[in-house]
Amino acid sequence: MADTGDEDCQYRIKEGDYVVLKRGDIFKAVQIQPRKKVIFEKQWFFLDNAVGHLYSTTFDIGSGGALQPQKLKENESCSDAKEAGTDNRHIVDDGKSQKLTRDDIETLKEQGLKGQEIIQQLIENSSTFRDKTEYAQDKYIKKKKKKYENTVTVLRPTCRILAMMYHGREPGKICHLRYDTLAQMLTLANIHAGSKVLVFETCAGLVLGAVMERMGGFGSVIQMYPGGGPVRAGVESFGFPAHFHDTLHEFPICHVNALLAGTLDTTAKEPSADENQSGVVAEEEQNQREVEPQSMETSTADAVGDDQEKNEKEKRKEAKTQVKKLKLEEKRKKLAAVASLLEARNADGLVIASRFQPCSVLMGLLKFLAPSRPFVVYSQYKEPLIECYTKLREHGGTVNLKLTDSWLRHYQVLPNRTHPLLLMSGGGGYLLSGTTVATDHQKPAGAQRAEEPAPKRLKLTDTEA
């Protein structure tokens, strides 16, 4: 029984976990913290009562923002009589069929009625509900549930759920990357546990988190980042254990050319003593200019106070300098460690998903891959990938180049009314994939393609003779 409890514990919500809230087709990623107010879909509540329950549990939002697990209902239908009409053509939507006004509905809410009870009141006070067809009644009930039922579902964050969340709320942050395209990227790049993968992305950390999730905490992931530091907001939403982050490394993309040329300097530059002294003198002169002239007669107490203040300032400066030195040393060690990993040039895969022009980045990072290793590049538009495709064909060193686009269609699957949804995503972006091969550096890349096979030349010679 103890083993069963330990296995069941990983499926239960714990304090400090990162979770995804779901209501309808809307998602939101939050962290469970004690007495922290969460606002989701114009409602506020606390997630304290969700701790200890299983993931994917649906909760009712009670008074005071308290969550209560939703009880299973045997009968989902709100109408007991199930009377339905056969035709909707004579029903006119003039706004007069519903007897309850907005004030009446607000009064019902103040009385403590739940969403299901309010929906039942709306059905009983509707003069046209029983004349509608069965399909129209189900549609009406579904619409009212979405509006009046105060429920929220707590899900465990996964790659697919977070991709749907970003694509539904802020698609621009992830370069309009759809979850089916992300799945193809992970497959084409052959992401698996124990591999060494290079990732260059500007998708808020979603692609990086997806790669780490697929690897399961085994292997190494090297994030090539632009700018002053890596962006990992999406990685935090996954809620990975601590040992997952031990496999994550970072390397600035601006140092790639220096690393390839062998001129990368991993020593952190520390400010010299003369620079520190000049800085202190300049700061003291600035302070003297700001202080107004005072009387030459000062008391002994003021002098002692000034000396103490100067000593405290010097101590604070020394502490800041020491902290800065420690940060520079730590940064230097990390940069040197990642540089040693890249210098081996034996990476197992490359994933690029960025809003920047990918051609120069791709040509530089391909040199760190071992032969017979896959790579994949994502772009919202096909023109940048066409440029990459042409460049790779001219340069050589890659085979099996494919430029593809993904297509996805959602269907409503219901009895006697299954059809594609009216509103769908128009495009999922484009992917360029291929495999690296070892090249013969003694001959130019195009020499072998231009030269004809020897047997063919012999046959042509015999025919002409």
Descriptive overview:
It is a single chain. This protein has 465 residues and is an alpha/beta fold. The chain folds into 3 domains: 2-72, Roll (Vcp-like ATPase, Chain A, domain 2), CATH 3.10.330; 102-147, no CATH class; 160-269 and 315-465, 3-Layer(aba) Sandwich (Rossmann fold). It is 40% helix and 17% strand. The chain has helices at residues 2-9, 102-110, 115-124, 134-148, 159-169, 179-188, 206-215, 233-238, 242-246, 256-261, 273-290, 300-343, 358-365, 383-395, 447-450, 454-464, and strands at 18-23, 26-31, 37-40, 43-46, 57-61, 67-69, 151-155, 196-201, 220-225, 248-252, 349-353, 374-379, 398-405, 411-412, 419-420, 430-436. The strands form 4 sheets. It has a 7-stranded mixed β-sheet, sandwiched between helices. Strands 2-1-7-5-6 form a 5-stranded antiparallel β-sheet. Strands 3-4 form a two-stranded antiparallel ribbon. A hairpin with a 2-residue loop joins β3 and β4 (43-46). α3 (115-124) packs across α4 and α5 crosses α6. It is flat. Residues 74-81, 270-285, 290-298 and 446-450 have low confidence and may be disordered. Substrate-binding subunit of tRNA (adenine-N1-)-methyltransferase, which catalyzes the formation of N1-methyladenine at position 58 (m1A58) in initiator methionyl-tRNA. Keywords: Nucleus, tRNA processing.
CATH superfamily of the largest domain: Vaccinia Virus protein VP39
Largest sheet: 7 strands, mixed
How far apart are the first and last residues' alpha carbons, in Å?
89 Å
Question: Structurally, how many domains make up the residues?
Answer: 3
**Would you count the extended β strands for me?**
16
Shape: flat
In round numbers, the mean pLDDT is 81
Q: How much is the radius of gyration in Å? A: 32 Å
**Approximately what portion of the residues adopt beta-strand conformation?**
15-25%
The top level CATH class name of the largest domain: Alpha Beta
The helix-and-strand class reads alpha/beta
Alpha plus pi helix count: 16
**Strand adjacency order, main sheet:** 10-9-8-11-12-16-13
The amount of helix comes to: 40-55%
CATH fold node name of the largest domain: Rossmann fold
Which consecutive residue ranges, at least 5 long each, have pLDDT under 50? 74-81, 270-285, 290-298, 446-450
Write down the oligomeric state.
single chain
Subcellular location: Nucleus
Biased composition (Basic and acidic residues): 307-320, 449-465
InterPro entries: TRM6 (IPR017423)
Organism: Betta splendens
